[in-house]
Amino acid sequence: MSGPGAGATPGRFVRLPAGPAGPAADGVPLHVLVEGSGPPVVLSAGLAMAWFDWDAVAELLVAAGRTVVRFDRPGHGLSAPAVRPPCAAGEAHRIAGLLDALGLGAERVTVAGHSIAGFHAEAFARLYPGRTAALVLVDGSVEERPPRTVLPAGLRTGAARVLGRAVTAAGLPAALGPLARRTAVRASRAGGADPAARDLVRRCYRTGRVWRGALLENARYPDTAAEVLALRAALPLTVPATVLAGHDPGARRPDLGWLGRQAALADALGARFVVAEPAGHLVMLDRPHQVARAVLYAAEPGAPGEA
Fold first, then answer.
1. What's the pTM?
2. Which of 38, 59, 72, 161 has the most CB atoms in a 10 Å sphere around its CB?
3. In angstroms, rounded to a whole number, what is the distance separating the alpha carbons of residues 47 and 93?
4. Cβ–Cβ under 8 Å, residues 111 and 135
5. Residues in contact with 260: Cβ distance below 8 Å, sequence separation at least 6, in sequence order
6. Distance from first CA to last CA of the chain, Å, rounded?
7. Could you give the maximum distance between any two Cα atoms of the chain, in Å?
8. pLDDT tens digit sequence for 26-56
9. Which residues of the chain fall below pLDDT 50?
10. Taking a C-beta distance cutoff of 8 angstroms, is the pair 9, 37 a contact?
C-alpha cells in the first residue's frame, strides 16, 4: 500500500488487515523496508528512533544472506501517528501481523529489539514461539520489578497527548527537532556524530508526529515493563536468546551498573551474554558488525558473539 511520500522513500507503507494482526490492526499505516533474501530478520528500533538507524546492520545482514525487515512503529520514523497507547503484547501482535502482510508468516524469524523495543521483541518470542527462530536484545530496557508510578496509566497517557499537542502547536519540532535528534544521538554513542542523512532527519524530526509518538510510548513505559514481567512469569522463553550490551570502557564514568543489570537479564532469560565495546546505548551505530554477528549466530548454541 502506498502512503504519503512513499515514492521518495525506501520501502512502502502497509496497513495491517483486521485478521492476523489482532489488537495491532488499528489502521495505522506503517512504514516498512524489506531487503535481501534468505532467513528473515526483524529489526525494531528504540524510543524515537527510525528505520535508518539500522542501515549499517541491515547492509551486513543482507550481504550475509538474510531477508531484513525494518519498520517504524506508529508515531516513529515515517509511520502514521499512534491512535492508541502502545503495549508489549500489542507490539508483538503488530510484528506478527506485519510478517503476515509481507508474506513471511510461515517462516521462523530472528527478532531483534533495541532499548524499549527489546520488550516488544521478547513479547513476540514468548507469544509466538513457533514463529521465532531467535531473540536478540540490543542494549534492551531492563526492569527487575514493576516500576513504581504515581499517576494511573490513563492520566499519564492523557498528559502525554496534551504535552505532545502543546509542543507541536508551539513549533518546537520544526525549530529544534533535528538538533534534538542529533544531540541525543551524539550523547548516546561511544563517539561520533549522527550518521543519518540530514534530509531524512529533517523529514522525521521536524514533525510533531514523532515527538507525540515518543511522549506516548515513554508515558506507557512502566506499564509495558510490568506487562513483560508478567509474560515472563506466565510464558516460558523456548527460543535461543542473546543479550548484547553496550559498554564504553573509555568513558569518564563507565556504567558498570548497567552492564551488571544486562548480565543479570541474560541469566534470567537463559540467554547468551555479549558485550559490545566500545559502544554507547546506540550499539547499532557504534558496533554494527557486532550487532549483525549476534543476529547471524543467535540461533546457534555456543556460537561466538565477539566481533
1. 0.93
2. 72
3. 18
4. yes
5. none
6. 38
7. 53
8. 778 999 999 999 999 999 999 999 999 999 9
9. 1-7, 20, 305, 307
10. no
What φ, ψ does residue 260 adopt, rounded to 5°? -65, -40
* Sequence-ordered list of residues with C-beta below 8 angstroms from that of 74, at least 6 positions apart, any chain: 26, 28, 30, 80, 81, 82, 83, 86, 213
Q: Which three cell numbers stand for residue 165?
A: 499537542
pLDDT at residue 9, as a whole number: 74
3-state SS record for the chain: CCCCCHHHCCCEEECCCHHHHHHHCCCCCEEEEEECCCCEEEEECCCCCCHHHHHHHHHHHHHCCCEEEEECCCCCCCCCCCCCCCCHHHHHHHHHHHHHHCCCCCCCEEEEEECCHHHHHHHHHHHCHHHEEEEEEECCCCCCCCCCCCCCHHHHHHHHHHHHHHHHHCCHHHHHHHHHHHHHHHHCCCCCCCCCCHHHHHHHHCCHHHHHHHHHHHHCHHHHHHHHHHHHHHCCCCCCEEEEEECCCCCCCCCHHHHHHHHHHHHHHCCEEEEECCCCCCHHHHCHHHHHHHHHCCCCCCCCCCC
Q: Which residues contact 199 (CB under 8 A, 6 or more apart)?
A: none
Amino acid identity at 176? L
**Backbone dihedral region for residue 160 (phi beyond 0: left; psi -120 to 50: alpha; all else: beta):** alpha
Crossing angle between the packed helical segments 198-205 and 172-187, to the nearest 10 degrees:
120
Q: In whole angstroms, how far apart are CA 262 and each of 47, 68, 247, 270?
A: 18, 26, 10, 12
Q: Residue 104 and residue 283: Cα distance in Å, rounded?
A: 27
